[in-house]
């Protein structure tokens, strides 16, 4: 079994937990709102981003996080996590079909 860094283990856990949140929205109507830059955001985006941020901060409380939906959470370290829970929201149709459109979106934790 390979050894994974704490960062990688945290990223994997965060992505998997965000996936559980996103499952709630499987084949449901997506209520899109638009941010100031005219890009769409959904409840699924916001809820899954909050889960990802919570998991990162539990493991790395002094690191900063830039969330696609919520912006920068600045902390004391130079390290910055970048997260986008549904990268590709603008490509999604009005009903969230994970399996029908798997190439249109991904969960990104880096």
- Rg from Cα: 14 Å
What structural category arises from helix and sheet content?
alpha+beta
Percent of residues in helices comes to 25-40%
Largest sheet: 4 strands, mixed
Shape call:
globular
Uncertain segments are 93-100
The whole-number mean of residue pLDDT values reads 77
Question: Main sheet: which strands, in order across?
Answer: 4-3-5-6
Q: How are helices and strands ordered from N to C?
A: HEEHEEEE
Approximately what portion of the residues adopt beta-strand conformation? 15-25%
End-to-end Cα distance, whole Å, is 23 Å
Q: Tally the helices.
A: 2
Q: Let me know the number of strands.
A: 6
Can you walk me through this structure?
The protein is built from two helices and six strands. The protein has helices spanning 6-23, 43-59, and strands spanning 32-34, 40-42, 64-67, 71-73, 80-87, 106-109. The strands form two sheets. It has a four-stranded mixed beta sheet. Strands 1-2 form a two-stranded antiparallel ribbon. Residues 93-100 have low confidence and may be disordered.
Offer a concise description of the structure:
This protein has 110 residues and is an alpha+beta fold. It contains 2 helices and 6 strands, in the order αββαββββ. Helix 1 packs antiparallel against helix 2.
Comma- or semicolon-separated keywords:
two-stranded antiparallel ribbon; 110 residues; single chain; four-stranded mixed β-sheet; alpha+beta; 32% helix; 2 helices
């Amino acid at each position: 079994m390979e050894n994974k860094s704490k960062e990688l283990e945290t990223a994997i856990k965060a992505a998997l937990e965000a996936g559980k949140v996103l499952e709630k929205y499987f084949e449901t109507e997506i209520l899109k709102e638009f941010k100031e830059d005219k890009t769409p955001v959904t409840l699924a985006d916001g809820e899954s981003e909050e889960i990802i941020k919570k998991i990162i901060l539990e493991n790395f409380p002094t690191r900063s996080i830039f969330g696609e939906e919520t912006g920068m959470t600045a902390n004391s370290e130079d390290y910055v996590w970048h997260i986008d829970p549904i990268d590709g929201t603008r490509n999604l149709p009005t009903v969230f079909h994970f399996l029908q459109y798997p190439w249109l979106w991904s969960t990104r934790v880096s």
